[in-house]
Structures are given as C-alpha cells and as structure tokens.
Amino acid sequence: MKQVVQNYKSGELALLDVPVPGCKPGGVLVRSTYSLISTGTELMKVSEAGMSMLGKARSRPDQVAKVMQSVATNGVPATYRKVMGKLDSYTPLGYSLCGVVEQVGAGIDDVKAGDLVACAGNEHALHAELNWVPKNLYTPVPDGLAPRHAAFGTVGSIALQGVRQGEPQLGDVALVIGLGLIGQLVVQLLAASGVRVVGVDPDPVRCELAERLGAAACGDPSSAAVEAAVAELTGGLGVDQVYLAAGGGSNQPVELAARLCRDRGRVVDIGKCRLDLPWNAYYEKELDVRFSRSYGPGRYDPEYELEGRDYPIGYVRWTERRNLACFLDLLARGRVDVEPLVSHIADFDDAVETYQSLKNGDLKAVAVLFEYPEQTVAAKAPAVAVPAVNVKPSPARAAKTPVRLAFVGAGNYATSMLLPHLAQRDGVELSTVVTTTALSAANAQRKFGFAEATTDLDAVLGDKSIDAVFVVTRHSSHAELTRRALLAGKTVFVEKPLALTEDELAGVLAAVEESGNDRLQVGFNRRFAPLLREARERFGARTGPASLRYLVNAGRLQHGSWYLQQGSEGSRFTGEGGHFIDTASWLLDADPVSVYAVATSGNEDLQVVLRYPDGSTATISYVTTGPAGFPKETLDLVADGRALRLDDFVRASVYGRKRWVSSRLPKARDKGQNAELAAFVKAVRTGGPMPVPLQSLVATTAATLAVQAGLAAGAPVTLAGAR
C-alpha cells in the first residue's frame, strides 16, 4: 500500500510503498476514503524538516534537552547513533480521516466490515491507504453524512475541546484569534452555542469566510475595527473568552487577548503560539488562562488510546471518542458546515506535489483533502496464527554459508543498538523485517538493507531459508513470539525479558521440550562488554565467597513511556532487572539460589539481595530517584583480598597484589552488544553451543520474576531448580 512520509533529517517528502498493517485485537483495519491535511500542524512539521540542524534544535529545545541527558547517560557515540537513526527515518503525516472498515480485530463488536468510520490520531489516522485504528480512536459516521465531511472529525474534535475549555454560556461574547482551519471551526461551534463572536486574522479572505460562517465581525489584529466591534458588543466591558487559534512566533495574540478580555475572563490556548504573558495585564484582570489538550480527555493516555479502556461517563462526560462522535453529529444535523472550508481536493497519488504547493504558497488553502482511489476488491490483511505443525531444528550450517536473519520489531533499541552491528557484518544476510506498523518496517528495510519488509509473521516463521529470528518487540509479546519461533525450528534471539510471568516462562520451556529446539539467546549483553571482561580476567579465579554491589541509577521515566504500563508490560524491574542479575551471576560463575527484595514506599527504589551456592551474595540497588548527572551503573566485587570496580562501562579497575586501571582516555560506553551479536551469529553459523547456556537464561529470568514475589511476601524466595 502507499503512505505519505517525510524524512525529518533531509526534509524529503515521499509517497512510499509500505507493508499493509496487521489487524491487531482491540481495533479495526480501515481503508481510507478521504484524509484531511492540517494546514497548520502538518505544514509546521514539514517546514521544520526543511531547516538546518541548528534550526531544528532551536525549534525543539525540549528535544535538545533530551539529547544532552542521553549524552550524559549513554555517551556521545551511542546518542549520536540514536539521534541520527531517528532523524534519518521516514515519519508519517496525517491524523484525521474517514474510511471503510475492512477487517475487525478481536474484541470489537460496535462496527463490522463495510461500515464507514471517522478516525483520529497521529499514529493511526495517517495519510495512508490502510490504517489500523484502536477502538477509542474511531467512531461510526452518521447516516447521510458525506465521507469528505466526516474526514474533518479529528480537527473538529480539537476545536470542540477548545470551546469546552472556555465554558461559554448563552449570550457570551468571544474573541477568536487566528482564523485558519481550527479557528473557523471554533467560530461555528461558538455561534451554534448562542455566543456572539469577533474574529481576528491578518488575511481578509479568512475574515470574510468567518463572517459568512457566523462571526459578528472580523478584522486585522492591528485594526481599530476589532476593538470597536468588541466595545459595541460588550458595552466596553470586554469579551468573556478569548480563543487562541493562531500559530507563529509573535506575542501579539496574548497581548491582544489581555487588552480585549473582560475582568476575570478566560483565555484558552488551542493553537501553538508564543505565550510570553504580560504579567501586569493578566494580573490586573485576574485572567484565567487555560490550555486545551488536543482532542479531549484520553489524549496521550495509552490505556485509553491503545488498550481501549474508556472513562466512565459519570466522571468524564466528554472524552476523545465522545468528542469525535459529537462533532460528527453536529455536521450531520447541519449545525456546523465544513464544505466552505474545503479549498482543494487532491488525488492521493498527487500527495507530494500537494504538500509542496502548500509549502511554497502556490496553493493557498484553509483545508485540503486527499481522495483515495476506490477499491473494487477488498484486500485481506495477513492473519496471525500459530503454525499447526512443529518443525525440527535445522542442522548445523556450513561455515561459509551466509546466516539469514529476520527481525520481529524495529523500534529504537533494534535500530540503534542491534541492527547497526549486523548490517555490515560479513556472513550475515538481513532477510525480512516484521512489524505491526507498516512504516517502521519500511524504515528498517531502507536503512539496513533488509530484502523484505512485511507485517506477516507466519510467512517468516514458515520460511525455511531463515536461520534465526530476533524478537525485539514490547515485553508482553516476548514469551509468545519466542515460543512460536522455537516451535518453527528457528534459532531465537529475544531481547530481555524472556518472560513476564512464571506461566510464560513455563510456556517457553514447554516449546523447547516439544520441539527439541533449545537454540535460544536472551539479550543479556553486559557479560559481553570488553571492559568488564578484561576486568574479570585481571581479577582472576577466586577461592572464597564474594560480595558484589551493583548500583543502578535508573532515573525517572518520561510521562507516556510504555515502561509505565505495568498492567500489560510488567514492572520496570521485571523488564530491565535481568541485565543486572545476569551480570552478577556471570561474575560469580553461578546461578542464584534465593532472592530477597525490599523497596521504598511506592516500590520506586529496590534493594535485591541474591544468594549463591558457595555463600556469595550480590546486592542490586535499583533506584529511580537519583540525580540525572550521576553514572547509571557502578559495580564493586570483593573477594579473597581483591576488589574489582566498574564505573559505568567507561573505566574499570582491579585492586590486589597489583593494581590495574583501564585507560584514562575517554571511551564510548561499550555495553557488549557488538560482541554479543558476534557470538550469536557464530553459534548460528557453526551450529556450536549458544553463547549463554539455557540453564543460565532460565535461572536469571526466574530470579527476576522472584523479585516481585518477594516484595509481595516480604520474605526471601527460594529458587527451585529450573528445568
């Protein structure tokens, strides 16, 4: 299928061929009929992409701050790879469309194939022929409403939520600053609510349009006509609400709002304009400044948007989805008219040229729609089913035969820490990349040279020419994907964690027993880090028990991180803690026999004590409340009158009869991914032993899971022998 994309590094716009997205549970696959270009938000993104690197940095200081924090934590080389990987990738455009349901996922019963729906979301309602849309981001289109009008649903919801934040009442007077697409809709919504509206925009054509759609008066922000109209309508008292629907770097809108608003009036920011509030003006009138967050309650909440958990109507009357349905109802009943806003309808095949015309100013428009070609035969999205038969493990390969790899998942970690090491490795062929979102597969194919990109997992598991499968998806899918790949006879590399529950771990082991295929590696990369391996060698063999202390300054997670979705993705330590347990067990050359865990209030900071067969202990302090500038990982191992210290994979030292300190020259943090992948590829190519014994992988996973059990019980947990 085709999708509009942009490369944020080069500014290139393209109509790209990408795989058809799969129809996941909890949503529907929608074939687009019309999608709407947001001439404000999208063109701002297009313009930013055309800036120099310095210009991009100036326009997004929030992202610059994140980069600097990543440099402090991960070092310059790793951060550079990550940032360049993100910049030099195709990103999607679009967030408002109308289309026909083509396939219904499990758990959906409010629509069926063939129904017309309006869809929202900058990750789901894209300018693409097909989109997978979760339940709370679509709503059925009322009978009789034209599809091209229903495509305005998302931007209409943005305008509607802004009006709700202003709390207008019958007889109020409102000022709308900025008469672009959102502003025009705000004018109509206010007029439909019995509010008299004054509009402000430097474009006389837009002012005239707003007056035709219900505004009492409109004018240029610098003209006396606007102030005169406000004075006449309010008796000189000022407007009850001001709606900021303008963009740009001028502070004029907020200054004008203060001048024309009444005492204790409300100022609602809907657009993205400069907000240097003049303190005296806002203080003297005690103005109430409010923000309108996109489509309404539920926005940016993954449990609402992705998992379909609705808010009870008794507590949250107007959510994203209810706003979307409300706006479509207003359209269907003729209370809002979007036809006068349609400046141009372009064929979807002409998408790139349309964006260029808008960017260059050749096409002056309030709203532009893409019209998609009609489909006479509905295409079927790939189904996901467990293979019916087991496949025996592949025999050992000849040493010169290229190893063919498939990736399931192509997120940030895969594209910044794994694939760069594999793409140029001799004897490796990147065969297929599988993702649930079409564009991420296409990006990985373009950047790393995969032969194929698809959303069809069954095809990969059934391809006998593929030797190994990398599972680099979200934590909740690791165990099931690993189990299926093992049953298909593939060698498997799965990122940590292997499993989130004991049942999931048992399922993986059952697949090993059923298939006889134990060719499994979990991404515990730190034991492969060159600096740590050298320090361990210099420390030498020990005779007595050891004490190990591992401080992990994990830091706070950003709001919205999927790591916070503990209900579906497990606790943060369950997801990451295996790294540190594996490192401790490797240094102590044994598997733990018991786990004791305690936590601060709220389980933010953990202390995990591991006991080993020879009496050795390892204490892992996993803290989230430490300072951002402090190293992430520091480790001390003491035994037999010797000590080993690791400082965040930058410096290491060993104290004993002789003292050894690693080079003081600045080095990048090498946490072992390259060496780990080299060992894995060698094992696949030669058929030799896996880099880490299965027993160790299982013991580490069991110990990680035991932490949560120990916290719940408040007592040590004994680890039974793993199969």
Main attributes of the structure:
single chain, 723 residues, alpha/beta, Quinone Oxidoreductase, Chain A, domain 1, Rossmann fold, 4 domains, nine-stranded mixed β-sheet, seven-stranded mixed β-sheet, 24 helices, 33 strands
Brief digest:
The chain is α/β, with parallel strands linked by helices and 723 residues long. It has 24 helices and 33 strands.
Summarize the structure in words.
There is one protein chain. This protein is α/β, with parallel strands linked by helices and 723 residues long. It folds into 4 domains: 2-152 and 302-371, Medium-chain alcohol dehydrogenases, catalytic domain (Quinone Oxidoreductase, Chain A, domain 1, Alpha-Beta Complex); 156-291, 3-Layer(aba) Sandwich (Rossmann fold); 403-522, NAD(P)-binding Rossmann-like Domain (Rossmann fold), CATH 3.40.50; 542-664 and 694-718, Dihydrodipicolinate Reductase, domain 2 (2-Layer Sandwich). It is built from 24 helices and 33 strands. The chain has a 9-stranded mixed beta sheet with strand order 32-31-30-29-25-28-27-26-33. Helix 3 packs antiparallel against helix 4 and helix 6 (153-166) packs across helix 13 (320-332).
| Beta content | 15-25%
* Rg (CA only): 29 Å
CATH superfamily of the largest domain: Medium-chain alcohol dehydrogenases, catalytic domain
Count of helical segments? Answer: 24
Give the low-pLDDT segments.
376-400
Structural class: alpha/beta
Number of strands: 33
- CATH class of the largest domain, please? Alpha Beta
* Helix content, binned percent: 25-40%
Largest sheet: 9 strands, mixed
Architecture (CATH level 2) name of the largest domain: Alpha-Beta Complex
Assign the CATH topology of the largest domain: Quinone Oxidoreductase, Chain A, domain 1
**What spatial form do the alpha-carbon principal axes imply?**
elongated
Strand order of the largest sheet: 32-31-30-29-25-28-27-26-33
Number of domains: 4
Oligomer: single chain
- Compute the average pLDDT: 89
What is the first-to-last residue Cα distance? 46 Å
